[in-house]
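On clarity, I found the account of how folds are encoded harder to follow than it need be. An entry of this sort, consisting of the sequence and the corresponding backbone structure tokens, reads as follows:
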Amino acid sequence: MEIERINENTVKFNLSYGDIEARGFSKEDVWYNRDKSEELFWDMMDELGDDTEFEVEGPLWIQVNAMNEGIEVIVTRAHLPKNAESSQFPFGIEDPEELFDPIFDAITDSEEENEEELQVTDRIFVFNEFDQIIPLASKMISLEDEFDSQLYAFEDRYYLNLRFDYSLIEKKRAKDIASMVTEYGAVSKMSIHRIAEYGKEVMGSDVFEQVTKYFS
């Protein structure tokens, strides 16, 4: 496992699936077993050591990215403003088990139950650079009639929202499309409501068509 201190409040872990197996976990444990994924998270945090000077306290921003040979976990310590509620942040230190939701399902069990009642659902993906979206667009443009799309900029990253209407597309097909996007970006747990409220809309529709038109 590689540990990189990004700045005062952020640390990055890179684990190969070999590293994960050496700790007694499997690839399936990471994405599908909440108890095991929480155990792995604390195992990683225990290895920070005194030399990193990274105190684990308060709410954390946590992003998990699937890589070809393993996972990348970015942990950022959030400083709450006075009178702020920890619920304003995506994860508190008390609930790290939410980190490793299945990346291709991109939904929790409770969300699955809700989606039985909902015909429309949003899938959010995050990209560190706009350039990551350009090659994706060339693959996705022919599929754009199967979903609605919007692109937002928020906190130096780009967030792509794909909105699927299950009255028009099967859930399995939606998951297949989501898995194609994860070849270039990562599933985000940020809600579309937060992104739309605090982020800047870059493209309000037909993202892949516009990216292909202006940047390819």
User: Anything to note?
Assistant: Residues 160 and 204 are 10 Å apart (CA to CA). The chain is about 30% helix and 25% strand. The beta strands are 2-7, 10-16, 60-66, 70-77, 120-127, 148-154, 157-165, 186-187, 200-203. The radius of gyration is 18 Å.
